[in-house]
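Need residues for this backbone.
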């Protein structure tokens, strides 16, 4: 879910398509670029908030372990 929210950050293609769609209309192109940048900012903020809410904090004891120790300690 978080990756899907932060995928909204990639806006380069949207600006490219807007430039093709509004080639002769500089006013509409400016509005389209502004809307794309606002949507990008909103997607980044929502992704950050969702990440903070949904992802667990790493246990300090686990952070000190080596990968081999973590693998042995994992319960299935």
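Answer:
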């Amino acid at each position: 879910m978080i990756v899907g929210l932060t995928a909204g950050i990639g806006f380069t293609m949207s600006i490219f398509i807007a430039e093709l769609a509004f080639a002769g209309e500089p006013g509409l192109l400016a509005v389209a670029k502004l809307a794309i940048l606002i949507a990008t900012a909103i997607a980044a903020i929502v992704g950050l908030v969702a990440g903070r809410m949904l992802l667990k904090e790493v246990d300090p004891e686990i952070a000190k372990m080596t990968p081999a120790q973590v693998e042995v300690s994992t319960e299935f």
